[in-house]
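It would be a great kindness if you could assist me with a short task in structural biology. The matter concerns a single protein, recorded as an amino acid sequence and a row of backbone structure tokens. Could you please explain, in whatever detail you think fit, how the structure tokens follow from the sequence? Thank you for your consideration; the sequence and its tokens are set out here:
___
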Amino acid sequence: MIIDTHCHLDDLRYDHDIEAVIERAKSGGVSKFIIPGADPATLPKAVRLAERYDGVYFAVGVHPYDARRYDRGVLEPFVSHPKCVAVGECGLDYYRLPDGIEAVEAEKRVQKEIFIDQILWAKTVDKPLIVHIRDASLDCMELLERYGGARGGVLHCYNADEQLLKLAQRNFYYGIGGVLTFANARKLIQIYPKIPLDRLLIETDAPYLTPHPHRGERNEPLYTTFVAAKMGELSALETDKIESITTENAKKLFGI
């Protein structure tokens, strides 16, 4: 059994065949799915999917690219839903920043303020975080160490920054997805064995980051099976053992 801890099933690219996507995944051993909250506009769709399909859960939050659209008051009615399991995906993303020193600093400041608010909110509602980090490891780690709570969370699409492994001591897990199967993922392949087994999670980030041998296609939860196989190879464990470990980790973190 596999739990896909990060799949954007509320994406438009699934509108025409969502039922088939879920059924394919379940037939392949993927039993549960977590839709992260990224864009507030799609949150009602995520809730409807969670209510319609057994095994589908969701999180509430705003992606750093949408930080300026963050309004906790809009999100709060959803966080008490029985199928809401986390706050996020929230975090910092410095990959695409505006031109000019002042504009860059202003963008970073907004992202940090919104990230801090979501960290504190997660503590208030006693839910784990789903954390997005891109080109911002030091700032993210500083904020998580300063403001984070006991519930911890998951570093979604773990970026192989070794210094972030310190967060395992603060109850953070590491989301491993299709990138691990890429031919150019040398850094992640090197760092992967250093992640404690009891801190590993499987994800797809579907429809993005499709694993080999399906690169170039739309990603979907069924393809967690390729991620699990690669994780087993690198851990010198049978694939079913990796599936069991990561499933128990996901249940523990998200309470599902």
Remarks:
- The chain has a mean pLDDT of 96.
